[in-house]
Amino acid sequence: MIDWGKGRLSIKAQAKLLSLNRTSLYYKPKGPSKKEIMLKHLIDRIHLDHPAFGSRKITSCLRRAGYSVNRKRIQRYMREMGITAIYPGPNLSKRNQRHKVYPYLLRNVDPSLPNQVWGMDITYIPLQNGWMYMVAIIDWHSRYIVDWELSDSLYTDFVINTIRRALQKAKPDIINSDQGCQFTSDAYTGLLKENAIKISMNGKGRALDNIITERFWRTLKVEEVYIKEYITPRQARQEIASFVNFYNNWRPHQSLDDRTPAEVYFGEGFRSLCA
Which of 20, 37, 65, 147 lies at a CB distance of 3.0 to 4.6 Å from 15, suitable for a disulfide? Predict the structure, then answer.
């Protein structure tokens, strides 16, 4: 490690001892351009309204709106954002073979109790000068948000940390996710196996396999994220924490007979804040 203080060796001497290029020590990577931020925010909105649109149609939409973009750039941005088109039927695109992909266990399954099935997913959260990623764990029976986290990267760590916190509260029979690299990683699958939790994964690109989580993302973005236009990560965390509290404890769901997720998740005797 380089000692940037008034050490016994100069920066040049330390770099030489460590076989480092001294010029690289002063390099500071540039942040995303305003155009990249704008295009990613637009891609996120188009995907929310038209989740079956792939890179070709999204590129076409942007061009029709007057933006000079090529499909390769949009494909790269979509990969960086963790966005893929979802389809009503099977997607026959080639799977990533580096990690095992687990079968979808929830076909024709309607969870009747809390903690039978948790759904887990990641979405893109726009900021005025950048973006973050949000992971959420949702109880499928009650729609209750068991836990969530924001990160400035798609590293697996923030997914694992969120699961560990959630497992301190309860343990589900099954956790369902998509086939993203975070969820096919050895760290993720190993943690679930260690806790005797069954692993379920959406069919690649299948919209209906994760419909409950997709509905929550739409609610979050339409009722909160797009309205607030967060400036800083700190503001995003504070505002989303407030919304999750509102969603769990105050917002009745028609599918839950106008009860809140917290009332259904915790059962009889629990009084919601809006009761």
Answer: 20
pLDDT tens digit at each of 275 positions of the chain: 445 455 566 656 655 555 555 554 444 556 788 888 889 889 888 888 877 788 888 898 899 888 888 899 999 988 888 777 765 444 433 344 566 889 999 988 889 999 999 999 999 999 998 999 999 999 999 999 999 999 998 889 999 999 999 999 999 999 999 888 899 999 999 999 999 999 999 876 555 667 888 899 999 999 999 998 899 999 999 999 999 999 999 999 998 999 999 999 998 656 555 54
Residue 22: name the closest of 10, 6, 30, 11 by CA.
11
* Helix, coil or strand: residue 220: helix
- How would DSSP label each residue in 2-64? ---SS-SS-HHHHHHHTT--HHHHT-------HHHHHHHHHHHHHHHH-TT--HHHHHHHHHH
Q: What is the 3-state secondary structure (H, E, C) of 141-206?
A: CCCCEEEEEEECCCCCHHHHHHHHHHHCCCCCCEEEECCCHHHHCHHHHHHHHHCCCEEEECCCCE
Please state, in angstroms and rounded to a whole number, the distance separating the CA atoms of residues 80 and 102: 24
What is the rounded radius of gyration, in angstroms, for the C-alpha atoms of the chain? 22
Residue pair 123/47 in contact by the 8 Å Cβ criterion:
no
**Cα-based distances in Å from 164 to 58, 104, 139, 170:** 36, 23, 15, 10
